[in-house]
Predict the structure.
Amino acid sequence: MKPYLVAMVLAVGIAADATAAVAQDADPVVENGVALTVAATGDIMLGTDYPEPRLAADDGASLLAGPAPLIKNADVGFGNLEGVLMDGGDPVKTCADPAACYLFRSPTRYAAHLAAAGFTVMSLANNHARDFGEEGRDASMQALQEHGIRHSGRDGDIASWGVRGRRVALVAFAPFKGAHDLLDIPAAMSRISALADRHDVVIVSMHAGGEAGDVLRVPFDTEYYRGENRGDVVRFARSAVDAGADLVIGHGPHVPRALEIYRERLIAYSLGNFATYYGIRVTGDNGLAPLLIAELDAGGRFLGGTVHSFRQKRPGGPVVDTSAEVFRLIRRLSQEDFPETAPAFLDEGRIEPRPESAAQSSMPD
């Protein structure tokens, strides 16, 4: 059977299981008003074996050990898979300057590391998801599914499952070939609206924004990287919420960006890099690795959460940063970019809605 057919069969099976799970749970679980907790990270690439092995000494097994307890404690564990999970295969992407162009191919066995760390759903919508063509994305989908991890990325590929008695969907967008198109906002809104009609909580992933230079600040305009349109992140994210998204998780710029509460929903404009073993710079702000925990009520509204501060330390993975540098950076960026709609930043990395931000950003349904 062709790889893409295998992926489709597995996806249908997982969707059926999710529907059954929701139907069997007649009493959704709510604890202190919290109906769902989501642990979210930015880019993950645990090592590559192309064109030569660049893998951790323990085959990557311990790279996610530090943050794993936090991720496993959440109802949903999300990350962006920056590259493919594939054994062998030839690249499709061509590089004018191979010394400055990276292709990421992790062994399929590395999906087990993601599952062991608590990840339950991954984005496959980014500029490295097709480094080895659609066959590479097929291989990633199959490897994840074999370890019980859902995914979204290719146009039409949407994760849908039951969590604590609620129907949850995740759809990943990017401005790249074969993905749910982030640049076609009307089509994106239509897709999100349809998901919102059938699900209790809709999570949207967006791989968007510039990369080179100082890209910490949200520009409130279309961003470009090497002449490529990388989208208008504020317009897309707010449109997604208008269409029915309950949580928007951004990644792509390789640095953290601001948080905003819009219409009582949380938008993370970029969670930067999280666990990128090779080929992606991790010095300075690029090495900051936030782990966002978002607490949502039964209607998907943001109740509160925590920004856990990690920093990448090669040759290892993300480690706890007791100085809370990334929390402090995200706080500053949020207050500068969204002075009216930033969350309140409290002690110990805690974030909560501000009463005035809910009033100012809410719009009638």
